[in-house]
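Collaboration report, partner site 2.

Our partner group contributed sequences for two proteins of shared interest, and the home lab folded both. The records are reproduced in the order in which they were received, starting with the first partner submission.
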Amino acid sequence: MANPNFTPSWPLYKDADGIYVSALPIKAIKYANDGSANAEFDGPHADQYMSAQTVAVFKPEVGGYLFRSQYGELLYMSKTAFEAKYTSASGSVTNAETADKLSTARTITLTGAVTGSTSFDGSANVTIATTSGS
């Protein structure tokens, strides 16, 4: 049975430089008396609170995108600007795109009743051939 409290992650988008952001187009905006607002989205995504400062600075509109930058900041872009800069990356992100090879390889060593070692640089899986102690 599906968890009724599960809220899926926002979809990923990527710019020409390979920078990923997660974003959703705004379906509706409900403003509060203090200048803050809640953005609503299509689908099972929870509403997103926007502070009065965020609302004043970005002036979000329905149809535009709220997104989290690669640094985790909540930002806004108009639909036209966002779709000109980002393309959908959902379902296409692989570990190879987001992970880096280690700049310095590391040695993994087993000691004790079973011994063995291997060098690991993050570019591929490794195995360790082991030897049983006496």
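Second partner submission, folded after the first:
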Amino acid sequence: MQTLLRVCRNVLTARAPAVWTEPQNRDLMVDARMYRDYKRRKMVKEYAFERLQYTAMKRNDILPKALQEVVSQELHAFPLNSCFTRMHNRCVLTSRARSVDVRYRMARMAWRHLADYNKLSGVQRAMW
């Protein structure tokens, strides 16, 4: 729990740029899994348009089968990390991949901890 508090305090007090210009600076990432996911997201963004075109051509029934097979082979030649299904929603504080709320980009445990201590703007634990 102390490490979670330390990570939360560092994230909330440190400046967090919107886009990292230096990918080798790993101080902004919690661990290697978060850095790996960052690299995957960058590659997905790079190849998204081409992948979409090739996928549409592959699924098109009007095109000849020979052309569809060529397109399928070229689609398989793309890097594996350029596929969007290899990305995971990760917590920005702890890099946890499970139970991440998409709106806050935080795991439920980190979210509850910050909500308990009134660190989230406009969020209050349920009371009745």
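Feedback sent to the partner group on the second submission included the following. Strands lie at 100-101, 106-107. The first helix runs from residue 2 to 13.
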